[in-house]
């Protein structure tokens, strides 16, 4: 009993000492350089440059990036604005004020791409960059991300297998729905509207359709 009283008193002091209190003392910051970095603010004066400007002009030859991404001209892969495809009919994948998805790629998108052949070639390039890691080079859903998750000796971690683009369900969805999936994502697939401009999303749709046709027996259409 005699030992219980001092222990209880010590615990009471400890609890009281842990209570939050308002203090005028500055906080303890072990790494103050995280708060006070050696950098310039916008529009500040710099003694380092001859013109004393901290905000520098872009290097010569820098490619400008515009809101919505850059539209690659298919002939020589130079970049320009993604003009002409900002209306809801194309951007959202439907036309004629209808909420339904367009069944096929809009003709004006194909024409702006320089024809279907050029569009498919561009789609193949973009597919290889953005889609192959998960969906695989042939669209079977066995890309490197999935194969690494299962490992040679069994699953390393639980990663859902990406959709097989040759499944009957995917082959028969409208082109507009496939475009919307690329734009907005679905389930564990993120949306790519910030990374891929409108015209390139349609180009990927055209290449996915070409992949599907390549796997169909006897040359039948989906």
Topology as a string of helices (H) and strands (E): HEEHHHHHHHH
Query: How do the strands line up in the largest sheet?
Result: 1-2
Provide the low-confidence segments as ranges: 67-81, 218-222
Overall 3D geometry? extended
CATH class of the domain at 106-217: Mainly Alpha
Task: Report the sheet-strand fraction.
Answer: under 5%
Indicate the structural class.
mainly alpha
Structural summary, described in words:
With 222 residues, this protein is mainly alpha-helical. It has a domain at 106-217: Cytochrome c-like domain (Cytochrome Bc1 Complex, Chain D, domain 2, Orthogonal Bundle), CATH 1.10.760.10. It is 36% helix and 3% strand. It has nine helices and two strands. The protein has a two-stranded antiparallel ribbon with strand order 1-2. A hairpin with a 6-residue loop joins strand 1 (70-72) and strand 2 (79-81). Helix 4 (116-130) packs across helix 9 (198-214) and helix 8 crosses helix 9 (198-214). The longest helix has 17 residues, at 198-214. Mean pLDDT is 76; it is low at 67-81 and 218-222.
